[in-house]
From TrEMBL, chain B:
Protein name as annotated: Xanthine dehydrogenase family protein subunit M
Keyword Isomerase belongs to the record: no
UniProt xrefs under SMART domains: CO_deh_flav_C
PANTHER family the record matches: XANTHINE DEHYDROGENASE SUBUNIT C-RELATED
Swiss-Prot/TrEMBL keywords: FAD, Flavoprotein, Oxidoreductase
InterPro entries registered for this protein in UniProt: CO_DH_flav_C, CO_DH_flav_C_dom_sf, Diverse_Substr_Oxidored, FAD-bd_PCMH, FAD-bd_PCMH-like_sf, FAD-bd_PCMH_sub1, FAD-bd_PCMH_sub2, Mopterin_DH_FAD-bd
Location of the FAD-binding PCMH-type domain: 1-170
MF GO annotations: FAD binding; oxidoreductase activity
């Protein structure tokens, strides 16, 4: 893999519009803006390239002198020979070319940061809108500015939305931290929305060719995928990991396809760097797979639900080893499908379609039976795949002398409601009232090292660490209780906040045990330390594999090409549900983001100038409340076999499952006209163009 | 936003005087376009002359065969006006489709018409109804007012005080909203008036324009079917990331049919 350096400020060459060239520190934002306007940058305009297909052509403008053809890495996964053999035996081969459109995350709060330097202690503090303050401390302190970790505090309090965009270490954080020491004043920076468009890391942007080999009964024999993935102008924090490690291993989906081969060429272009955006690699994989399944079904004349059933991994077959590294521990895709067929009232779809037709509208139904891998991640596994960090999580449970609890956790909350979910876990396990549990996160001075929040990992990995730390508190409490109750430790039971001697009515409350731990007069000091505070780190043994069945129903107005999402049903297996309302909220938000990609959102560059054309909310269409129907969201859970609570994670499932469901519905609505694929976003103009082409008489060969 | 002087006159002549005496000064009505331009530092007027204290510029008056809407009347007031809803329902409908509730509560008819954004809604209503733009100096017929991209017949120091709309026999507006901005990707206003039919299109090109073939067809048969086959020439139409010119041309016919439908309903 080619790893050209990513300087804080461009050195000699600007590689994308939005690449930082200089920064101005002033007393007021107005002065800083005036200063920036006075800067005269003497640009020599070089040829640029923004599109993937153009960037890999011979003689394309090359971003880095030592990166020929702009190819950062040429990655492959799977058994190429086995796939080739299977294709030779195939009764049918379905082919699909598609584009996965570039997205811009648009969290409600733009990125912002304040850096301070204290000369007396030689300490830096960076307040930043980060999803992982400890990792920023490590990356910026150890790898960028050479500040010892103990001299750098990174604070990320409540942050107004992240979606991955705030997961990376950004140059702005480093330059203002550097500047704070130089000017001996706190330095504040807040991105405008326009600045965010050209500097927040973008998502997706693939061009893919896929082929699915099937036998005469519609059984999948092999799947071959070739993808070009746009990296933008530099490697961002997780950049090349997304279209490779988080993409290829998902190409098995919920099917028994025995042979899979995937090649990904990761390509530099003169665009904003691309990195993880909600779903990160997995929506792209799901889109390719769930689309080509529909294409194959249509070409072979097999019902779309039936072809899925014929290839689905049965519930009894779990744990299931796929040919692309991952082993699914649990799942019931057929159960999710059956539940969704009922919830979406599929049996009466024909009636609804006829009603639409009577108004001159085309109605379509689309399925996405998908699985994803989240709860990032088993460190060893990640290391084998080339990741350079561990992916465990940490939690400290501090029981105060009066029995209230403060939890320090290494995950980060930016809108997910972790304070609620984590406090529920502690409250239920320790029998402490919910309001007596406080969750602390987002401050490297207050919280032990943690990896932050992304990849639907907070409950799965952070919650597991929290569960383990809580178990340690209970174990120590039992030792204290055994001493106080003069009973053997094995006879002490803990339930509903009470330590009791089995078979007796003798007991001590959780508060009494906490009190004894901190006032150890009557206490086994010879064998037990005072205090009641426990810490745990949890490194997952596997990914978790939530998934499910999403069914989208759309209506197309052929006169204008407008697609209206009229019904949406999701039946998901997210494992144990701790808080149903939060799970439903995550599903709603995730689905809306996927619908956004399918129907509205598109980051567009001008090919000649490399300027971002969709650089504002006036030009980049975010999904809005009036674009969406009421959604039906249900769970059909199987328990994860390797997480302490059976949880699987739910932060990204909506975004991963939904684009394919929506586009499959759009294609279904237009299938009577011979339409076999629609690229995202399915805008009115694009649909109208397809209809125009479909209605033109076919030219004689 | 760069610093600027701020004036809030309470008489029209004072406003006009400020506008002519201070070079690089700008009028601000609802500010729905100007303020965001200032915030993006794309404009840096020396002074803003705020029209909000000019009480005579607000309100809607019934002139029998006409309705006069003061230049500083917000879109939401026009949309909710019983008078407009009764006499020119198509115009009330147009006002209700502008932007979003926040924009409709601040944005004004005078500001919209003076700005002449190529995708704004009001220019279609004003031109489609053959309204008269009343200014601090004169009256200008809609057909002579809109000169092209953000250009109007307004002279230096001239302030729109009201728009006078003739009450039509029938009128309707149909708008295909640009999905992100909610401006008109294409908006068509159709009005049947005493001496014929007027069809005005916004959003499709660099400025609002009329469609004589549709006007002729609808004059003899005021029904959507009369214009279904009329194709718009794509020459001069806008092509951008939201819509290609031929799609916009197609939408003109579709929206014109829907505007006729709206007028008939």
């Amino acid at each position: 893999m080619k790893e050209p350096p990513f300087p804080m400020l461009a050195q000699g060459k600007v590689r994308f519009v939005g690449d930082m060239v200089a920064f101005v520190v002033a007393e007021t934002p107005e002065q800083a803006n005036v200063g920036a306007e006075l800067l005269k940058v003497d640009y020599e305009v070089l040829p640029s390239v923004v599109g993937l297909l153009e960037a890999v052509r011979p003689n394309a403008p090359q971003l880095f002198d030592d990166v020929p053809n702009n190819i950062c890495c040429d990655w492959e996964l799977g058994d190429k020979a086995a796939v080739e053999t299977a294709f030779k035996k195939a009764a049918h081969v379905a082919k699909l070319s598609l584009v996965n459109n570039r997205l811009i995350g648009n969290p409600m709060e733009p990125r912002a940061a304040i850096a301070e330097y204290e000369p007396g202690t030689d300490r830096f503090t960076l307040w930043t809108t980060s999803q992982f303050p400890h990792v920023v401390r490590f990356l910026m302190g150890a790898l960028v500015l050479n500040i010892p970790q103990h001299k750098l505090r990174v604070v990320a309090p409540d942050v107004g939305g992240g979606f991955g965009v705030k997961q990376f270490h950004y140059g702005e954080e480093a330059v203002i931290t550097w500047a704070a020491k130089r000017v001996r004043r706190p330095v504040k920076w807040v991105a405008s929305r326009s600045e965010g468009y050209v500097s927040d890391r973008h998502g997706r942007d693939h061009v893919t060719e896929a082929e699915l080999a099937l036998d005469e009964t519609g059984k999948f024999l092999a799947f071959r995928v070739n993808t070009l993935a746009n990296m933008g102008g530099y490697l961002s924090t997780f950049g090349p990991n997304i279209p490779t490690n988080l993409y290829g291993p998902l190409l098995g989906g919920v099917y028994t396809t025995p042979a899979i081969y995937c090649n990904v060429k990761v390509v530099f272009t003169n665009t904003v760097p691309v990195d993880a955006y909600r779903g990160a690699g997995r929506p792209e994989a799901t889109f390719v797979l769930e689309r080509i399944v529909d294409v194959a079904a249509s070409e072979m004349g097999i019902d779309r639900v039936e072809i899925r059933r014929r290839n689905m991994i049965p519930k009894e077959a779990y744990p299931y080893q796929t040919p692309v590294l991952v082993q699914y521990d649990s799942g019931d895709p057929m159960g999710c499908l059956d539940g969704a067929l009922v919830a979406a009232d599929v049996k009466n779809f024909g009636v609804r379609k006829a009603a639409s037709a009577s108004k001159g509208k085309f109605r379509g139904l689309g399925y996405s039976t998908y699985v994803e891998a989240c709860g990032l991640a088993p460190s060893r596994f990640a290391g084998r795949l080339g990741a350079r960090g561990g992916l465990y999580e940490s939690a400290t449970v501090r029981v105060h002398p009066t029995g209230q609890v403060t939890v320090m956790i290494g995950t980060h909350n930016h809108g997910q409601g972790h304070e609620t979910t984590f406090a529920q876990i502690v409250s239920e396990k320790l029998g402490v009232a919910f309001e007596n549990v406080d969750i602390v996160f987002g401050d490297t001075d207050r919280v032990q090292f943690g990896m932050g929040t992304y990849g639907s990992r907070s409950l799965v990995v952070g919650g597991a660490a929290l569960s383990k730390a809580t178990d340690k508190v209970i174990a120590k409490g039992k030792k204290i209780a055994s001493h106080l109750l003069e009973a053997a430790e094995v006879d002490i039971q803990f339930e509903a906040g009470k330590f009791s001697v089995a078979g007796t009515d003798r007991s001590k409350s959780f508060e009494e045990i906490a009190g004894a731990a901190y006032v150890p007069h009557n206490y086994p000091l010879e064998v037990l330390e005072p205090g009641l505070e426990e810490q745990a780190y949890y490194d997952p043994v596997n990914f978790t594999y939530p998934g499910g069945c999403h069914i989208a129903e759309v209506e197309v107005d052929p006169e204008t090409g407008t697609v209206t999402l009229v019904n949406y049903t999701a039946v998901d297996d997210v494992g144990t549900v701790i808080n149903p309302m939060i799970v439903e909220g995550q599903l709603h938000g995730g689905i809306v983001q996927g619908v956004g990609q399918a129907l509205f959102e598109n980051a567009v560059y001008d090919e000649g100038s490399g300027q971002l054309l969709s650089g504002s909310l006036m030009d980049y269409c975010m999904p809005r409340a009036d674009h969406l129907p009421m959604m039906k969201v249900e769970t059909h859970s199987t328990l994860c076999t390797h997480t302490p609570m059976g949880v699987k994670g739910c932060g990204e499932v909506g975004t991963i499952g939904s684009p394919a469901a929506v586009i499959n519905a759009v294609v279904d609505a237009l299938s009577h006209l011979g339409v076999t694929h629609v690229d995202m976003p399915a805008t009115p103009n694009r649909i109208w163009r397809l209809l125009q082409n479909a209605s033109l008489p076919v030219a004689a060969e | 936003m760069k610093p600027f002087a701020y004036h809030q006159p309470d008489q029209i002549p004072d406003a006009a005087r400020l506008l002519t005496s201070i070079e690089d000064s700008k009028l601000v009505a609802g500010g729905m376009t100007l303020i965001s331009t200032l915030k993006q530092r794309l404009a840096s007027p020396v002074a803003l002359v705020d029209l909000s204290k000019l009480g005579s510029l607000k309100g809607i008056t019934d002139g029998g065969a006409t309705i006069t809407i003061g230049a500083m009347t917000p879109h939401a007031v026009v949309a909710a006006s019983k008078l407009v809803q009764t006499k020119i329902p198509g115009l009330a409908a147009l006002a209700s489709m502008i932007g979003d509730p926040a924009v409709r509560s601040r944005g004004t008819i005078g500001g919209s018409v003076a700005n002449n954004d190529p995708a704004a809604d009001y220019p279609a209503g004003v031109l489609g109804l053959g309204a008269t733009i009343v200014t601090s100096m004169r009256e200008i017929a809609a057909d002579k007012f809109f000169l092209g991209l953000f250009e109007t017949a307004l002279g230096p120091g001239e302030i729109i005080t009201a728009i006078r709309f003739p009450v039509p026999l029938k009128a309707g507006y149909a708008k295909f909203k640009a999905p992100a901005s909610r401006y008109a990707l294409v908006g068509v206003f159709v009005a049947q008036v005493a001496d014929g039919v007027r069809v005005a299109v916004t959003g499709a090109g660099p400025g609002v324009f009329r469609v004589p073939p549709m006007e002729a067809a609808l004059s003899s048969n005021f029904d959507p079917s009369a214009i279904a086959a009329i194709k718009i020439d794509t020459d001069g139409l806008t092509s951008d990331i939201h819509a290609e010119a031929d799609y916009r041309a197609h939408l003109v016919t579709v929206m014109a049919k829907r505007a006729v439908d709206a007028a008939l309903s």
